[in-house]
Amino acid sequence: TFTSYLGRFTRRPDLDYYLHFVYPTLRVLRCYDKQFHNGHLLIVLRKSPNLEVLRLHSTYVTGEHLANFHNLRELYICSSKLEALHIDELLAKRKILRMHLTGATTVKRDMDVVLQRVFPQITEMRYYDDDEHIATQNLFNTSTQTLVNLEKLYCKHLKDFVYTLHTLRELYFENQLKVVDLFKLVENNTHLENLYIGTLYENFFANAREWLCGLTECLRKQRERKVALSMHLNMPQRVVQYVRQFVVVSLQVNNLNF
Known about the structure:
4-stranded parallel beta sheet, 6-stranded parallel beta sheet, 9 helices, elongated, alpha/beta
């Protein structure tokens, strides 16, 4: 793991120097160098063909040559020149367990098509609106029905498509949530085990007794539910203690944990 251009200040060699050597046993490479390009990746392929984890932060990487890493299992790339055809080739040839693509792509509509093909295989997904988008904003709205195996979702803001999912077991988000939307999430996902709410205001619990009773009744009606729902709240400690005490003492709920 290195950032080659620190060499200007630490008198370390730059990127090209390291790529002169052969690393046949190298399994993980993390390179944070904006000048890293496809030619460098080809050199890495020849000298470290057994890479399993690759993390690149670059301006010029397009994804070319990635499909030729036979043992690649995890890929993390931040680039402004990603090309859909190379990502498509990679996904067609290799079984990637984890992939994180950020930055920009040459034609977003083409990347939509590539991602739609792998959506049925995805079990865990993260998206962050603060990042530049590699696909169009309409991707999720037109492809939600293909996320048939999605179990874990991590996001900053809940988009409309989240409320149409039915396979979630774990959900983490940071934006505010209305009580009616909370009910909808729980009703649609009978296997939901962990709900992490990153940002809430105290007024969310202004009518805590009322909506907790409604949530409890909703859980009791779910005949397919085999596990308890645990809610993890990023709230002031005194508020969480109040809710926990209310659930345990007043409701004696067996299917809801805080």
